[in-house]
Specification:
Rossmann fold, 9% strand, 8 strands, three-stranded mixed beta sheet, three-stranded parallel beta sheet, globular, 15 helices
């Protein structure tokens, strides 16, 4: 991972915090003790009145399938799954979510108001280069509000991405995170209150965070599974395929060599392309780094993959983006031009081309 990744830190030897954590997981973390902590929290929050005792954000993908299986079958919890449906989806993502539910899980699907979602997404795309931000915020807010409404204080997300992939190390030794962490880290400090100039608070219900007082009253314990067990996306994929019949794409995702992750929505493909233009690393760099850390690739192999796949323009979905963001192609290109890092890219034949080389 390059130093351009937000919140990424390096030690004196130039090793990023994601790779430091990958080594710590093997040698310095007492995973037995952390699993006992998880068992303790499960007993603490286990329902005594028949209510659900843990809330699980799910997409039907590999990670939510894995965590849900362990929570229900290995820890004996009574989970309520909640899926925040993206603005427009892949058929394979819809199929995997429905297949997950069919394997015996109570699940609420939330479809935030599409008209509002589109307008928030358009503004976040233009202003911040964040085409997924409307959904990212809703995933946090809608999960918290559902937990409060159903009086379920225990929430379990999948991985803590900052530790696993590079970023803030604040939560390295904490099983839970707070409201401010959600806003500042996972939502890049972008709050939907900035959209009150266009929408009412009622209209922004799925995007405006519960107040600090509401959080305190609900005593939410918001956890990541990766704190309690070493996180391994490929293991998650294999278990999801075995237990839930998870299906992958027929070909690799745009910008990488894998075909089994982030099959929810085509906006992920644009999200990764913007990531590449802003920071100089793309979807393949992220995937290859994960595979290096788990020992599935060496660095030379990863470099070749990055050279082949990273700079991938999401051509197949452009028409869908233009319709979703209500833009002309010229307006769409202007947003890409606005956010492209001019220190890392130059425009050649109407496409941004890297001026650097991964070695």
């Amino acid at each position: 991972m390059p130093h351009t990744r937000p919140r990424m830190t390096f030690n004196d030897e130039g090793v990023c915090n994601a790779c430091q954590w990958a080594e710590d997981k093997k040698t310095n973390v007492d995973w037995n003790a952390r699993w006992k902590q998880l068992e303790h929290y499960c007993e603490k929050y286990r329902s005594k009145d028949g209510n659900f005792d843990i809330l699980l954000p799910v997409s039907g993908g590999k990670d939510s399938c894995y965590v849900s299986y362990r929570i229900k079958h290995d820890l004996g919890m009574h989970p309520l799954a909640v899926s925040i449906v993206p603005p427009f989806t892949f058929k394979i993502g819809d199929k995997n979510l429905d297949n997950f539910i069919a394997h015996g899980y109570d699940c609420i699907k939330i479809y935030p108001n599409i008209k509002i979602s589109k307008k928030i997404a358009r503004r976040a795309f233009i202003e911040h280069g964040q085409p997924l931000m409307s959904w990212i915020i809703a995933v946090q807010v809608a999960v918290f509000k559902t937990a409060i409404n159903f009086k379920i204080p225990f929430i379990m997300f999948g991985e803590e991405g900052e530790m696993e992939y590079g970023g803030s190390s604040k939560l390295k030794n904490s099983p839970f995170y707070e409201r401010d962490d959600s806003i500042k880290i996972y939502c890049s400090n972008i709050q939907s209150k900035e959209y009150l100039d266009e929408f009412s608070e009622k209209e922004l219900y799925w995007w405006i965070y519960p107040s600090e007082e509401e959080f305190k009253k609900a005593q939410l314990a918001i956890a990541h599974w990766s704190y309690f067990e070493p996180w391994n996306p490929y293991r998650n994929y294999l278990i999801a395929k075995e237990k839930f019949g998870l299906e992958e794409r027929s070909r690799p995702s745009i910008g990488t060599y894998t075909n089994f992750a982030q099959t929810d929505t085509p906006i992920f493909d644009l999200h990764h392309y913007l990531m590449y233009l802003k920071f100089g690393f793309g979807r393949c760099s992220a995937d290859a780094s994960i595979d290096i850390r788990r020992g599935a690739l060496d660095r030379d192999q990863a470099v070749e993959l990055v050279k082949k796949f990273d700079n991938a323009y999401p051509e197949p979905y452009i028409d869908r983006y233009l319709e979703f963001f209500d833009m002309t192609k010229k307006e769409f290109d202007a947003v890409l031009d606005k956010h492209a890092n001019k220190n890392l890219f130059k425009k050649v034949n109407d496409r941004w081309t890297p001026t650097f080389e991964v070695e």
